[in-house]
């Protein structure tokens, strides 16, 4: 008997043993009945048997052994992915999920070798194919499990950030009211400190919400209107110069900069880029900001001097929750962040249909955000 036929003939016995093992995976398994514990295990076994009967080339065998077998066209999920999704929702840990496959593999091979004490070349070949199929199922399950856990994590962060905004807004409104009442007393400095801290917390929560939306595939929300980015950015530059009094910031505008943009989001991106330059650029060095338009697109660039970013780290600078390799030159409580600044800049550019590039060499780093200008003065974007 071939291994595929043996598995199909013993699906119930193998699945029952796997179900018994799954019941030991506590605490997640404690609240599951027999049907939930068995889950998709019989279907996984039948899928493995079908795989064993499917001819494959040497290249396909290699891809499967490396966990890179192509997904079935037209199938939204494999059985292994569905199994992982349900296990994640039931509170299983990823180690427990992998342990299920180890037990399933051992159960099949134990029964198979008992029934075939002497294995010929064909039986050994079947065992090799079986192990490849299980490894592929493990890879699919781990990918599905991780994606589901990440989705719930981002949902949690989004809900947390949203729910914290209301009480924080109440604190800020109250603090500003108290500040007006005590503006001429010694207490005023403390109320201003409270307001600054609250505004910083609000900015962190806004970043967290943007990160959650982008991670869930929703993107950052933008509301575009007809604006002149030169005027919008000039207002932000005044605030940035006030916030960074010891840092020279050069500001230059060239060409038409009117168009359909979300002005508040562009200001946010500019602020993030300048603060990033202040943190990681040379101490006291100038920051150069340039806004240039040609009617079809607008480019906003921020450059600073300092230790260049290593070439192999350039792609990672936009990744969320990552810190630069260079220590921030002005790290302080005022500069505390979640490490989402450049990630949000990239998402703002994408939401406008644009992109962000970074060049770092010869002691200079420059980030450039390029935005298409569909309603520019000289015609539509190409």
Compact description:
The protein is α+β, with helices and mostly antiparallel strands and 382 residues long.
Describe the structure.
It contains twelve helices and seven strands. With 382 residues, it is an alpha+beta fold. The chain has a five-stranded mixed sheet, with helices on one face. Strands 1-3 form a two-stranded antiparallel sheet. Helix 1 packs antiparallel against helix 4 (41-52), helix 9 packs across helix 12 and helix 11 (263-280) packs antiparallel against helix 12. The chain has three domains: 3-152, Globin-like (Orthogonal Bundle), CATH 1.10.490; 155-215; 225-372, Histidine kinase-like ATPase, C-terminal domain (Heat Shock Protein 90, 2-Layer Sandwich). It has helices at 3-9, 11-22, 34-38, 41-52, 58-65, 79-89, 94-115, 121-181, 188-215, 229-243, 263-280, 341-351, and strands at 225-228, 249-254, 258-261, 287-293, 297-305, 355-361, 364-372. 55% of the residues lie in helices and 12% in strands.
What labels would you give this structure?
single chain; 382 residues; alpha+beta; Globin-like; Heat Shock Protein 90; 3 domains; five-stranded mixed β-sheet; two-stranded antiparallel ribbon; 12 helices; 7 strands; 55% helix; disordered C terminus
